[in-house]
Write a structure and sequence with these properties.
alpha+beta; 13 helices; elongated
Length: about 575
């Protein structure tokens, strides 16, 4: 079995006009699971993979880990692009977690079973559903698909309950949590959200939650929604406490009024049955969320800064074996290809088309002719002179590699801190909306990992994204620690407020479409990262700029709304 690789999901490619593409939600559940490894207590998660002709099997998304149940409904659901004219082969696998390793390290976990399907076949199947028994007899997989509404709005409320019926006996009280499902078009239910549990409390109050409308009801506020209450058990065999069937419109109209919690079996058995408590949705509202295209149309300027690795591990730039070697035929080297690919995508967004270019890991010639100590962040041209256009960046790079003395080690923290200070000083505000992308090109293993983590955590408060492109054949495993897709980056007792780093290895992209594929993968997370910054800063899009440059307006108009990840915890 080939080992899956992990590029980030591509939700936005501004270089390509969208053709026949729409978003599809995949709801994954399983029944009658048992571990082939003989584990008595199941801890399972689902993984969505995609077959790619050039890159093999790619990990697209991973669900939360669910404990103790042999019939799990996994959250969040998986959101994919449905390309009508493209054959798209997906794989869903269920794993038993080892309880220690991150889910993305699939080799550390036990695979229970899986199924392979073409997305087009799933979309054409009755009720857009497939049911497949694992060949090893360890369970049955259910996958249901549904086209996703384009809305980015959230349903916001704070749930509470009163006078719930205790399921723990005389000496303790239940630990309630909420499970919300939406009704599918075939009448079945799909779990879309799960709250935290509240310990030992029959009158629980849950924290405010934000549930994407696209996932809660697919944009239809009259679609039936079921809110179930369970008594949490560490074994995973949670006890049903009752349910409320409603919809988003009714929740908004209720304005926090009590809704009866019903146990259908008790209701059928007892003539005088009233309810098993009440549920309240306090201060319910619809939170409007802007799109990436809204900010671009409103004049938000995205600027690119480039930082290039001139450490000695790259080799003598005059040697054909060097990563910095200039091919006499005019073919671009690795660094030049990365600059051209990413820069060409970002060029339409930058109003003045002027870019700062930095180097790191080299000694530079001083005014008296002597060499400086190794510099870990220096402008390629004196005084920090910015260059014009992508050709200007390429020329600055070519000038620098023949003027500096390659040295080392490879340190990122000074570069990131200098960029963070510069970004903070530019004063992003409601009136002057700006966002910076720092493109770091490097060949080596990072030598200040912990300091770099701390610098990234501090930078996460600023309007900044960091894209790291690994060049060459080095071991880049530590770089994946900086690309915190599974959990926000933590170091030195602090945690980043958002994910701002994307790492890719250049060697993973080859062939005729390599440049476009590289640009797509390194930039796919930027719209979401930018939106998260503006949302945290309470900055909203400005009215559309009437004099927006034509190519920027065209790109903004073709950009789809970014899909919203499911909020699985309150």
């Amino acid at each position: 079995m080939s080992k899956p690789v992990t590029p980030s999901s591509s939700y936005f490619n501004p270089t390509v006009q969208l053709r026949n593409v729409e978003k599809v939600s995949l709801f994954v559940s399983a029944r009658n699971l048992r571990s082939p490894g003989g584990h008595t207590s199941l801890k399972t998660f689902a993984v969505l993979l995609q077959s790619d002709a050039q890159q093999g099997v790619l990990i697209r998304s991973i669900s939360d880990v669910l404990n103790g149940t042999d019939s799990p409904s996994y959250t969040p659901c998986f959101v994919v692009d449905y390309n009508f004219e493209v054959v798209q082969e997906f794989i869903v696998r269920i794993y038993h977690s080892d309880g220690r390793s991150p889910p993305r390290d699939l080799d550390k976990h036990t695979m229970i079973g899986g199924a392979t399907f073409h997305l087009a076949a799933l979309m054409r199947s009755p009720s857009q559903r497939i049911i497949d028994s694992f060949q090893n007899g360890c369970g049955v997989l259910h996958v249901h698909a549904e086209s996703l509404s384009s809305t980015r709005d959230n349903f916001v409320t704070a749930f509470s309950a009163q006078k719930l019926v205790n399921k723990e006996g005389f000496f303790s009280k239940s630990d309630p949590f909420l499970l919300i499902s939406r009704q599918n078009e075939d009448g079945r239910w799909s779990v879309v959200w799960r709250s935290q549990h509240v310990d030992n409390n029959l009158n629980p109050v849950w924290p405010e939650c934000k549930i994407p409308i696209a996932l809660l009801c697919n944009g239809d506020i009259d679609r039936p929604v079921k809110i179930e209450i369970f008594d949490f058990e560490r074994s995973g065999k949670h006890v049903f406490m009752g349910q409320v069937e409603t919809n988003v419109r009714l929740l908004l109209q209720a304005r926090g009024q009590p809704m009866p919690v019903v146990e259908p079996e008790q209701q059928a058995k007892k003539k005088n049955y009233v309810n098993s408590g009440v549920l309240l949705a306090r201060s319910p509202s619809i939170e409007k969320n802007a799109t990436f295209a809204d900010f671009i149309a409103g004049g938000c300027e995205i600027s690119l800064s480039v930082a290039i690795d001139f450490t000695s591990s790259n080799g003598d730039p005059h040697s054909p074996t060097s990563l910095h070697f200039s091919d006499p035929t005019g073919a671009l080297n690795c660094y030049e290809r990365a600059i051209a690919s990413v820069g060409e995508v970002l060029r339409p967004y930058d109003a003045d088309n002027m870019y700062p270019v930095y180097g790191f890991g080299a000694k530079i010639r001083l005014a008296d002719g002597s060499l400086s100590p190794c510099q870990h962040c220096f402008p390629v041209y004196p005084g920090g002179l910015e260059v014009h256009g992508i050709e200007g960046i390429l020329q600055a790079y070519r000038d620098a590699k023949t003027a500096v003395t390659f040295f080392g080690p490879t340190l990122f923290a000074p570069l990131i801190r200098a960029t963070t200070e510069k970004v903070a000083a530019m004063g992003c505000s409601q009136e002057h909306q700006k966002y910076v992308i720092l493109l770091v090109l490097t060949d080596g293993v990072i030598n200040d990992l912990e300091l770099t983590k701390q610098a990234i955590i501090d930078a996460s408060h600023q309007p900044l994204s960091i894209i790291i492109v690994g060049v060459g054949a080095a071991d880049f495993s530590e770089m994946h620690e900086l690309d915190s897709d599974d959990a926000l980056l933590s170091a030195g007792g602090k945690t980043a407020v958002r994910d701002i780093v994307q790492f890719v290895a250049l060697r993973d992209f080859s062939g005729g479409s390599a440049a476009a594929a590289l640009a797509e993968h390194v930039l796919c997370e930027v719209p979401g990262q930018m939106l998260s910054f503006f949302q945290r800063s309470r900055i909203t899009p400005n009215p559309p700029v009437q004099t927006l440059p034509a190519e920027v307006a065209q790109v903004a108009a073709s950009a789809p709304a970014m899909p919203v990840g499911l909020v699985s915890e309150a």
